[in-house]
Amino acid sequence: MMPLAAYLSKMILCSAVLYLYYHIALRNNRFHQWNRYYLVLITLLSLITPLLHIPLPAIQEEPSVMMTYTTRIITLRESVTPAATPADYLRTGVIVIYSLVALLLTGRLLISIIKIRRLIRHSQVTEIPPYRFARHNAIQAPFSFFRYIFWDLHTPMDTPAGKQILRHELVHIREKHSTDKLFMEFISAIGWINPFFLLIKRELALIHEFIADKNAAGEEVSDYAQTILQMTFQSKQFAITNDFFHPPIKRRILMLTHFYQPRFSYLRRILVLPVAALIFCSLAFAADKHPSAIRMQAAAGNRAITVTPVADTSTPVKKKQVNTPKAAKETKKVDEVNEVFTFVEIPPSFIGGENELVKYLSANIKYPKAAQEKGTGGTVFAQFIVTREGYITDVRTVGARKGDGLEEEAIRVVKAMPRWQPGVQNGHKVAVLFNLPIRFSTTEEKAAAALPSPSRPIFTFVEQPPVFPGGEEALARYLSKNLQYPAAAVQQKAGGTVFVQFLVEADGAINAVTTVGAKKGMGLEDEAIRVVKAMPKWKPGKQNGREVTVQFNLPVRFQMQ
């Protein structure tokens, strides 16, 4: 209902402004062909412009919180259709009434066409190229329709008045005025709620008569005007035909005797261009409200890759020269012209998957000597951009600094990574901001973590992530079946993406369920937490062959339809 109402409002506004310009600057002037094309074009412009949505780049504000991915995140776009309300019935009723009126008016148009075709079949038709001449006793006055000229039995053709009428109808055929009429009748039927379409249709029919009168009268303006006056009271049979006796007579005669050229005639016609451009830009262009990222909070104390100091008996691993100067230059150019996303449909991934990433980090990260000597450890969050070509750029660390070379080592290894599989959004490869947590710990800490204890470490990056029983499709089915749109959210038409964060324990149980990110309210968070808490046990994640506790983030989108 809302999209239809918005479209109709824009359509009426567009046609109102452009018709108002015509009424003020162009109406009752002698450039009839210009006015004819203008009226047809503003009708098309009014119909098409509201349908266009040309996005303008929006200014992106710097995020105030850290944005990150949780590895193996499952994106569920849940569409919940709420129960019908009185407002829904009202919207449906309005749409049905509008459609019925449009159908009736279109039906009336089709009936008129059928009657004309029936009249042709029952008339005496004579082929006189480039037109066909039809006569029948049911014809009340001369008129034309496409290639046919319909002539009554009471109007002689060999008189001066008859010849003028014939020339008049021949102009209609030559200029293809019936096409304009049929088009405007159809548009007025389906867009009957727009009063300006009716005004445009009436003006266009008059301009057709002005064009035909001007060509048919020639030098005999007085005699032609007298013929119009004498035949004033002849009736009009069809709305879609071109009748010689078309009212209002006063304006037709005025146009015949209107010989002077108005001031600024050319300027009046040219000034419509900025007016049309203003309307087009106002209605067709819109700020791009598509978010470049969805905020998520990074969990503290996450554990992804554990690095322990070992005896360094081998030669240091050399940094892989992947980001060549040429590649870096190209990547920089790409980043300057492309938006950087932090949440996409398909996230970027290390070539070969998570297991290969674990192997790469385990093989290349070296515990800094200064950190070994001082016993410094902790989790370093390496943040970087995976460009749409898969290059790693803008590597840095975020969060509290650990020091003693831990951050520098993490940055060194990440910069040396080979190209990744880039992220995908709306079918296009895009640049994505990625966070990789790396935990540096001593051998003693690692051994303690391996012991059975109620304070088992919480992982966010493991070799085998936890899985819902049956996989992602089964998870999507479970959420679709159990999620219920909160009544308060339905009434307020609230929606959005709720990020549920929880722990999948080593035995598969769901624990510590909460939500992160901006609160939507209206019961959306409570409903998401309720459904997640009711989940069956998952298949737990594994690290180094052991089942471990893993933190998991699940986005649930509530969307009104």
TrEMBL record:
Subcellular location: Cell inner membrane
GO biological process: protein transport; transmembrane transport
Listed SUPFAM superfamilies: TolA/TonB C-terminal domain
GO MF assignments: energy transducer activity
Ranges of residues in domain TonB C-terminal: 352-449, 470-561
Topology in the lipid bilayer: Single-pass membrane protein
Any GO CC annotation of this UniProt entry: plasma membrane protein complex
Pfam families in the record: Peptidase_M56, TonB_C
Matches recorded under PROSITE patterns: TONB_CTD (PS52015)
Family that this chain belongs to: Belongs to the TonB family.
Listed NCBIfam families: tonB_Cterm (TIGR01352)
This protein's name: M56 family metallopeptidase
